[in-house]
Amino acid sequence: MLDLTNPAGCNCLALRQAARHVSQFYDQFLAPSGLRTTQYSILARLQRRGAITINALAAELVTDRTTLGRNLLPLQRDGLIAIEPGESDRRSKEVHLTAAGATRFRAARKAWEEAQAQFETAFGVKRAMDLRALLHEIATEEKIATIEA
Length: 149
Prior knowledge:
Elements: H1 11-30, H2 37-49, E1 52-53, H3 54-60, H4 65-77, E2 81-85, E3 93-97, H5 99-123, H6 125-139, H7 142-145
Antiparallel strand pairs: 1-3, 2-3
Helix pairs in contact: 1-5, 2-5, 5-6
């Protein structure tokens, strides 16, 4: 039987600890670019998708709007993103990648690729791929999202 008083038996704690550990690892590689993993993820999403509303970006990153706002502020301050009224709904706000943001993203991508390669060397390419698939399944699992406490 699972000992629920033991922190090692908590799925949430184990996932959060692993996420923090891996984030710190990637942050070391990204540090010379002046970006953290959360900021890099935002720029990567904008590079791939183009302009997107703040609400849609928060949903895609599986974060709340307040946390996203805290991560957007330094990117906006540094001129890497622009936040403008939405095209179709002027009440909404869209996040746009600026030319400076695209340049910073390209520079940081090399560091990210090195972190990715080193992680896969240490963890194993197949295990890393399986881990990403499992984590994606967890992140998109409707049964977990709809459970009421």
